[in-house]
Amino acid sequence: MTDTMITQMPKYELYKDSGVEWLGNIPHSWGILRLKHLCAIKTGDKDTVHRTDDGMYPFYIRSPKVQRINTYSYDGEAILTAGDGDIGKIFHYVNGKFDFHQRVYKFSDFTQVKAKYLYYYLHHNLAEEVVKLSAKTTVDSLRLPYLQNFYVAIPSDIEQLSIVNFLDDKAGRIDKAIAIKQNQIVLLKERKQIIIQQAVTQGLNPDAPMKDSGVDWIGEIPEHWGIVRFKNLFTQSRLPVRKGDGVVTSYRDGQVTLRSNRRAGGYTEAILEGGYQGIRKGQLVLNSMDAFEGAIGVSDSDGKCTPEYVICDPINNVNVSQYYFAYLLREMALAKYIQVICNAVRQRAVRIRYSNLAPLFMVVPPIKEQEDIVSFIEKESAKLDAGIKHLNEQISKLKEYKTTLINSAVTGKIKVTELA
């Protein structure tokens, strides 16, 4: 599927200037109306909307999923989109009973336009045009007057139906192809995790004699591996911050690096850097708040980090690989063992400290085996990561094609028939 396929599709014989800069030319027979003339637009009521048993609203628009419930405040055909956050990016077409949040816009009571056609049309330029005019606060906020005045190109009823049927079919096929590739990514990630888990807990020799490790979350290990408490392997680092040190972050995928190496924005910045500590390349790092989600690794950068980080160095004369133990500790985290050793009222409040790690028994292969395991994991991970990257690139192209296809159909850049 390529943009070339779209350009080769039939076109209308005559076009006219829509009078709307971003819309450009539209088929000569099509009309132009503002959104307020096509439907009623309303937000939900925070006081009367029914909630689910867990206190969540049934439509959380920032998620692509829609949670249906038995109680409802509206029954009928409608389109829903977010009033802030991901405005103009996520839409839901609903025909049935539902409630909706006060920061969700509901389009209903359609005239001169079919709801499903408008659902597809709203994907075209709504985010760019409305956000441009809307007030800027901590999040982009969609203001009703600008939304009401959004221009919509209107084909005939028959053409609208043809466009809807065409897009239901084509977009549905694209979505299925994307779902297949996303499932393949899940399987590759699961395969990667299995490879890592087996390597760090069972070694690389499938014929090695095994013994019970005595460690709850590990089970059997090669007979020649040792069992040593963490405090006899690593000590907690307490380095000072140096002038010019950048902030280092430990991410859930196991990378520990300067924020500037990863992305520029999206972080919560501390007003006062009280308690910050120095961090150096090669140190074993755990983000105490996010370790249970896998935010454990070896720093590839010098810098500084918050006091919420546990930074560890091998004890003098102890021959260990920080990289091996980063993989081992990530496995401990992903096995949910951090929740077992750390008391917390809520799961999200779990924090792991050096004092939690210190008394724990760690499995310790000979140093050469540790290094071989790390090399094996990195080699196999690189292969799987390349496959995941390729699939993500294919998904991006499919999404781009889908967007272009929808935009071309609802603006008349291609002439659609039900059998197209």
From TrEMBL:
What this protein is called in its record is Restriction endonuclease subunit S
Name the UniProt key words of this record, in alphabetical order.
DNA-binding, Endonuclease, Hydrolase, Nuclease, Restriction system
GO terms assigned for molecular function: endonuclease activity
Q: What organism does the UniProt record list as the source?
A: Vibrio barjaei
Describe the location of the Type I restriction modification DNA specificity domain by residue ranges.
28-182
Listed InterPro entries: Restrct_endonuc_typeI_TRD (IPR000055), Restrct_endonuc_typeI_TRD_sf (IPR044946), Type-I_RE_S_subunit (IPR051212)
Keyword Chaperone carried by entry: no
**Which family is this protein grouped under?**
Belongs to the type-I restriction system S methylase family.
